[in-house]
Amino acid sequence: MQLTAQIVAIIVALAMLASGSVKILRTDRIVGLMSNVGVHGKTLTVLGCLQVAASVGLLAGLAYPPFGIAAAAGLILYFAGAVGAHVRARDPEWQAAAALLVVSSFTFGILLVAA
């Protein structure tokens, strides 16, 4: 079980690092996608920084599990907010993706606690 949690932590951390980086760099594609949801300017940078911080927390959780648990809890809240934003924007294509990430983050948190 511990090996599974470690592998998932690394995969999720890399995904959050990539996603956060494009938000911080404000690539054209992400600016367009986030505009549809009503996220602009500094908010986009803040969201990217939160994702990068989560990736650091997940990786730090490999050495000290409470950091990983806190990062997973933060991601659950982050993606729950994302689901709400996509529902509010009536963006059904991304609602499912955000909901999947909430479930994935929750499952990962359970793996960390069980490990």
Question: Can you describe what's shown?
Answer:
This is DoxX family protein. The chain has helices at residues 2-25, 28-37, 41-60, 65-88, 92-114. The protein has 115 residues and is mostly helical. It has one domain. Helix 1 (2-25) runs antiparallel to helix 3 and helix 1 (2-25) packs antiparallel against helix 5 (92-114). The protein is globular, with a radius of gyration of 14 Å.
Secondary structure elements and pairings:
Elements: H1 2-25, H2 28-37, H3 41-60, H4 65-88, H5 92-114
Helix pairs in contact: 1-3, 1-5, 3-4, 4-5
Number of helices: 5
On the 0 to 100 scale, the average pLDDT is 83
How helix-rich are the residues, as a percent range? over 70%
Total beta-strand segments: 0
Write down the Rg.
14 Å
List SSEs in N-to-C order.
HHHHH
Strand content: under 5%
Tally of separate domains: 1
Shape: globular
